[in-house]
Write a structure and sequence with these properties.
3 helices; about 10% helix; single chain; six-stranded antiparallel beta sheet; about 30% strand; mainly beta; elongated
Length: about 290
Amino acid sequence: MTDRALVVARAGALTTVQDRGRPGYAHLGVPRSGALDPLAANLVNRLVGNPPDAAVLETTLNGCAVRARSTVTVAVGGAPCPVAVGGRPAAWGAPVVVPAGELLEVGAATAGVRSYLAVAGGVAVEPVLGSRATDLLSGLGPAPLTDGTVLPLGAPAGPPARVDGAPQPRPPAELVLRVTPGPRDDWFTARAVQDLTTRAYRVSAASNRIGLRTEGPALERARSGELPSEGMVLGAVQVPPDGRPVVFLADHPTTGGYPVIAVVRTADLPAAAQALPGTPVRFVPVRRR
């Protein structure tokens, strides 16, 4: 039994191990996975002295609680939330020392959806295809955390950052997604293509790590039937039979048969990871690069 480990005391609604994912395996049917908000994951890793590819914990809405077997340095970022060590308030967005045996509590998000917990040395679960990320679609990587799960930790790579707090973007009050039209916009009426970028949508409560689902006007097709399955990319805006756009996120399938009306710029996807159900969504057309 290693002393460098965390023991999960409260797993929360959904807490998973995430890193930069496993891009490059789509031809094998393996999604990229990885942190939905990579900017937040990178920042908390920097705060504890980890390299950017170190594995962190991604929590959803109501946080989690872990007990340290040895003294560790941690940082919590992403969705703002209360943090406590041994029942006492601790800093969010800054390095915090957790003594051996103490309980670290990552509370419910006060804004946004996903908080990130980095520990000096990173979460050292066994990698699969070069990544420690939990992929909810394919089942690769460690299972979502449950109470009592023991998470081994690696050796610290460097000293923690000397900061009192690191600025982080606020979760969006309105989710603005820049989209490039196509590749299957010709499967929709001209009115539908216009509706996508001019009508009001909102984030659906049915959203998850696979895709951000929307509520709003249905997009009318110009063609009936289905496409043969074709490759899907991160940020693809796929339109299922109900006509409501779905933005593919990190655990998205590598192929699909519903037409893709547009593709979201990758730089806009971290904000999608933090958009609460009911958040207004606006699709903004941009030219192909």
